[in-house]
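To whoever is on call:

I kicked off a structure prediction for a single chain this morning and the downstream step that reads the tokens threw a length-mismatch warning. I double-checked the sequence; it's 190 residues and nothing unusual in it as far as I can see. Pasting both halves so you can look.
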Amino acid sequence: MTKSVLLVGVGGQGTILASKLLTLGLMEEGYDVKMSEIHGMSQRGGSVSSQVRYGDKVWSPVIEKGSADMIVSFEKMEALRWLEYLKKDGKVVVNDHEMMPMPVIMGKADYAADIIDEIKKACHDVTVVNATEEAVKLGNGKVMNIILLGTIIKAMKLDNIDWDRIVRENVKPAFVEDNLKAIKVGMDWV
């Protein structure tokens, strides 16, 4: 049986690193894994998504609408944008964080105030976290992505994988300890 996880955010939030670490851990556990990334002007704050599919045999990296087991959103507007990809009984983890897109900054669009409420109306299994704030509390605001990776690990029941080793082998040594703390914070949230 194939499982599908969609990670969505804005350029610079670390969605790609989180999806790569997830993919490495899944592969080491023996799963067939396919991953695809879409970078929509990611260096300029555009939408970024990573699709990770795993199971005994995975034929395509593409998550079709209505088939994601889990959506993890690094920015709350992105959760709303991608919600149609979620299964009926799927889970959403949304970082309660706003990054204003260019149309909002230029005054040509509004950033909706009730995004979390809209997500909760559309999905019955929603966990709202403030991973950005928790990352700052850990002393490194950049580990927000790894906190969110921790929510995936716990929600998808992947905590038997040696994530400490995956992090130690794939993160710059200066950031290993912060990332290990971040995974634990995320796992405790779900």
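Update from on-call: the warning came from a stale cache, not from the record. Cleared it. Sanity check on the structure: Residues 95 and 129 are 5 Å apart (CA to CA).
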